[in-house]
Amino acid sequence: MNNETTRTGGLNRAKPYQLVLFPLNNGATNVYFVLILSYVAQFGSSVLHLGIFASLMVTVMRVCDAITDPIIGAMMDRTSTPIGKFRPFMILGSAVMAVSVIALYVLLPFIPETMMPMRYVGFVVVYFIWVLGYTFQTSVTRAGQTVLTNDPNQRPMFTIFNTVGSLLGMGIMQFLIPLVKSNFDVRDAAGNVVVSGYADPALYRIIAPIGIVISVLLTILAIIGIAEKDRPEFYGLGGTQESVKISEYWEIIKANKPMQRLMIAGGGCKLALAIATNTTVLLALYGIVMGNYNSLYLPMMVLGYVCAVPFFLLSMRTSQKKGQRASLIRYVSVALICYVGVLVLLLAHQHGNSDLTLSFPFNGGGAINLYTVLFIIFFGVGYGAYYATADMPIPMVADCSDYETYRSGKYIPGIMGTLFSLVDKLVSSLAQTLVAVIFLIFAGLAELPTDSTPYSGGIKVAVIVMFCIIPMLAWVATLVAMKGYSLTGERMKEIQAVNAVRKDAISKGTSVEEAMKTWTTMDQVPDEFRD
C-alpha cells in the first residue's frame, strides 16, 4: 500500500471504507451486550431458576471482566504477529464468545433440576469463559482507533460509524428478540400474558445462533476495515513494542489527567445506558406501568433511534469544529434537561387513567393523547441527544492514548483502552445488580418482574429511579468530569503535530529520548507537519 494515501501533513488518515468497517467491531460485541448482559439474568432466573444469584453473577463477572482488562491490554501491546497486533484478538474473542453462548443458552438448560449445583457451577464457568472472549474483542475497539486515524477531523466520524455498527448489532437484537419472544408467551382467554416467553428455553435456542451469525459477520467486516492499518509503521512513534509492568498502571493513570476524567465520564455514560435500556426496566415501564408492552416497546425504541439521527450529525460537526469535549458537554446537557420533563411525566402517570398513560393505536393500545405527545417530545429529544454521544468516550480514548505517547513516548493503546474500560465496566457492572436490588427494595420482588407481574406503586417508583434518576445523576457526573478535560480540539492538533515530527525524526535515526526533548510545542513543528 502507498502510505501517501493515508498520511498527509504528518497525519495518519483512514480511507472511507476503513472508517465505515472497523467500527463494526463494536457492533459485533454489542450483539452480545444485548444477548448476554441484557438477558442472561432473566435467563438465569426464569429458565435455570437460579433466582437473584443470576443477577449477582452478572455483577461479579463484570467485575472479573474489568480486572482482566489491563492484563489483556498489556498482552495486546506486546503482541506482534504476521496478521498484526489487533486482528488476532478479534478472531479469538469472536470464537470464544460463540462457543460459550451456545454452551450457556443451549446446553445448560438440559441439566435437570435434580442437579441444581451443576447448573450453578456451569453458569459461572461458562459465563466467565464468555467474559474472556468479550474482553479480547471489545479491547480492540478502543485500542485499534490509534492506528486507524489520528486526524482530529476524522475521529469524530468514528462516533457516527461506531453507533451505526452498534445499531446493526444491538439494534437488530433489541428489535428481533421481543418479536421472537411474543411467539412463546402463554396467554389466557383474555389475551393477558400468564407465562412470559422469557421463561421458555426454546426462545434462547433460537436467538443465540442468530446473534452469533450477526456478530461473526460484523467481525469479518471489521477485520477487513483495519487490515491495512494493523502494521508496525502505524504504531506510535516507531512501531516498537512497549513493555509496561502491572505496577506502572497507577503511575500512568496519575500522570494522564485527561484519562482520569474520561474514565468518570465514560463510566457515567455506560451506567446510564446500561440501566435506562435494561430489558427488565423497559419491560416494567411499558408492560407493567404503562400496561401494554407489545404496543409500546418497539415504537419507543424506534423513536429513540430516529431522533438520534440529527444529533449524530450535529455532534459530529460540533466535534470537528470545537472538539469532542465540547460536543459531549453540549448534548449530554440537552439530554439532562429533557429527562427532567420525562421525570415529571412519569411522576404524573396514573395507572388505569387513559389520559395519563402512554397510548398507541395498535396492538391493543388506545388513541394517542396529550401525555403521549409530551412523552414523545421529551423522551425523543433527550434520548436522541444522549444516544448520539453515548459512544463518544470511545474515540476520546484514542486521544488520551495519543496524549500518553506525546507525554511519555510510550505507545500503549491496549493498556490505555483497557484502563478506561476497567472503570467503565466496574461502574456498569452495578447495572444488573442495581436493577434487581431496586426492584427488591421498592417493589418487594425477590425475582425480576416479567410482563405477567401485576402493577404496584412500588414497581412504578423503581422504574422512575432506574429510567430517569440514575441516568440523570450519571449525566451530571459526566458534565462535572468534562469541565476540566484538557484535550480540546486545538490541543489535539498540537499533540498530533508534535508526535508526527518526532516520529519522522526517529525514522531518520534520532533517538526517542532526543526527539522527546527537541519537539514539545507547536511553534517548534515545521510547516509540513502542520495540517
- Rg on CA atoms, Å: 24 Å
Helix segment count? 21
In the sheet with the most strands, the strands line up as 1-2
Give the percentage of residues in beta strands: under 5%
Order of helices and strands: EEHHHHHHHHEEHHHHHHHHHHHHH
Instruction: Find the count of extended strands (DSSP E, 2+ residues).
Output: 4
Poorly predicted regions:
1-7
Main pleated-sheet profile? 2 strands, antiparallel
Helix content: over 70%
Description of the molecule:
70% of the residues lie in helices and 2% in strands. It is globular and about 80 Å long. The two termini are 22 Å apart. It is mainly alpha-helical and 531 residues long.
Helix and strand layout, with pairings?
Layout: E1 7-8, E2 11-12, H1 16-21, H2 24-38, H3 40-46, H4 52-78, H5 87-107, H6 116-143, H7 145-148, H8 155-182, E3 186-187, E4 193-195, H9 201-226, H10 249-255, H11 257-276, H12 279-289, H13 293-322, H14 324-348, H15 370-389, H16 393-408, H17 413-428, H18 430-443, H19 457-483, H20 489-507, H21 512-518
Antiparallel strand pairs: 1-2, 3-4
Helix pairs in contact: 2-5, 2-6, 2-8, 2-9, 3-4, 4-6, 4-17, 4-18, 5-6, 5-9, 6-17, 8-9, 8-13, 11-16, 11-17, 11-19, 12-13, 12-19, 13-14, 13-15, 14-15, 14-19, 16-17, 16-20, 18-19, 20-21
